Amino acid sequence: MENEPFEEEYIFKKLKEFKSKDLSYSSGRILGSMCSEPHPLSKKVYMDFLDSNLGDHGLFEGTKAIEYEVINIIASFLSLDNPYGKVVTGGTEANIMAMRSARNLYKEINKIKNQFIKPFEVIIPKSAHFSFKKASDMLGFKLVEIDLDDEYKMDIEYVKENINKNTIAIVGVAGTTELGMIDPIEELSQISIDKNIYFHVDAAFGGFSIPFLNDIGYNLPNFDFSNDGVSSITIDPHKMGLTAIPAGCIIYRKKDYLDLISVDSPYLTSKKQSTIVGTRSGAASAATWAMLKYMGKKGYRELANSCMINTNFLADALFKEGFNLVTKPQLNIVGFNHPKIEIDDLIKAIEYKSWKVSTTTYPKAVRIVIMPHIKHTHIMEFIKDLKEVKKEFINTN
Ligand SMILES: *Cc1c(COP(=O)(O)O)cnc(C)c1O
User: Fold this and answer.
1) Do residues 88 and 277 make contact, with C-beta atoms less than 8 angstroms apart?
2) What domains can be seen in the chain, in order of their start residue?
3) pLDDT at 117 over 70
4) Rg of the chain over CA atoms, in angstroms?
5) Closest residue to atom 10 of ligand 1, CA basis
6) Candidate from 33, 34, 130, 179 with most ligand 1 atoms within 8 A of CB, to mutate
7) Would you list the DSSP string of 198-231?
8) To test ligand 1's pocket by mutation, which of 88, 134, 236 has the most ligand atoms within 8 angstroms of CB?
9) Whose CA is nearest to atom 15 of ligand 1?
10) N or C end: fewer C-beta atoms under 10 angstroms in the chain?
């Protein structure tokens, strides 16, 4: 079939039809996403930088300077002066880059030429994001999954037991994807110093909340570069940072870690490239920079705090209604189930009432992420619906 050209009017009409099938954040019905409505300023700035390609940054010196500032500002939230890093497509790319740095560092230290002759191992918590499975497949290392303790955090004793001469990295998570829990980063940092192993912290979700919540007295565990063993941190502006997708960050303590994964890029103005993708959005950097300036620490403190207030409100209400909380929320994620309702039935009934929730795998539970687009009124409606759902099951069984 020939792809005939059409008028703009037709194109917009058709796109509107497609878009009408998408859910909107503003409906309050999206309860299981780690993304949110981007701030209007971030959208506006994005449009202004659509032509900017950081993969060829010799042509875009201005945007390159913006990226440099973004990395420096975000690193300052994470207690690091003189950071090295990149604004990339998201937590996945950032984690793959970190694992690539770790593997290449190990190869360099151990003078290994062929990466396929040794069974490299990476220690991750059972709660780690699936991006590490992609990294494992792409980079050819084995994942050693560590069991969680009663609070769904990485169990330190198992970490110690599982370190061996093939371990190229340890990964800890600050804000797990399923339950928002923070692994014992201080202890993991100490272990990685003692054993001289690369230590990566995945704070894709928690990185834009934990520092700000601690500023206002939440007393969450320290997860940042003030722990000397931390080699790199993943942090996503397109989650709690209110920036438009795609915007993730990888921040490194040392320049070496970035140099170890750079390859020559001869036909471009920039002669080295370390990111996974080639042509790379400069708009992501510009939009993130705009949000960092616009929100300031004060804005991010208020945002994180309001999400936590809503989270605690939801958790208390669920508890009062006889639901089980998987664990007390550390960040703005709540996992719950009901002692008398089969979990799959519970999820079906909630979705039948037009809510989009997600699920956790360990343990199996309904997972609610209280992002900035979810307001108090949405939670009230949700609780009201849950009461009805509960009645249906308790009466008929
Ligand atoms: C969301 C998330 C990721 C993946 O980030 P993307 O931006 O979706 O690629 C990685 N790690 C954690 C802990 C996450 O929550």
Assistant:
1) yes
2) 8-38+304-396 (3.90.1150.10), 40-292 (3.40.640.10)
3) no
4) 22
5) 91
6) 34
7) EEEEE-TTGGGTHHHHHHTT--PPP-STTSTT--
8) 236
9) 177
10) N
* Vertex 275: Cα angle to 196 and 171 (nearest 5): 35
| pLDDT reported for residue 267 | 86
Q: How many degrees, rounded to 5, is the angle at CA 127 between CA 154 and CA 153?
A: 30
Ligand 1 within 6 A of CB of 91: yes
Q: How far is the CA of 312 from the centre of ligand 1 (A)?
A: 23
330 lines ligand 1 (CB under 6 A): no
Phi, psi dihedral angles at 238 (to 5 degrees): -85, 10
Region of 28 please: left (phi>0), alpha (psi -120 to 50) or beta: left
Say how many Å lie between the CA of residue 204 and the centre of ligand 1. 5
Question: What residue owns the CA closest to ligand 1's atom 3?
Answer: 91
% pLDDT > 90, the chain? 93
Tell the residue nearest (CA) to atom 4 of ligand 1. Answer: 91
Atom of ligand 1 nearest to the CA of 95: 10
Q: What per-residue confidence (pLDDT) applies to 11?
A: 97
Give yes or no for residue 191 CB within 6 A of ligand 1: no
Residue 91's SS3 state is helix
Pocket test for ligand 1, best of 92, 235, 332 (most atoms within 8 A of CB): 92
Q: Around Cβ 154, how many Cβ atoms within 10 Å?
A: 29
Mean pLDDT (whole number) for 292-304? 98
The whole-number pLDDT of residue 116 equals 64
Beta strand spans in the chain (E):
84-88, 121-125, 142-146, 167-173, 198-202, 232-235, 248-252, 263-264, 272-273, 324-325, 333-337, 358-361, 364-369
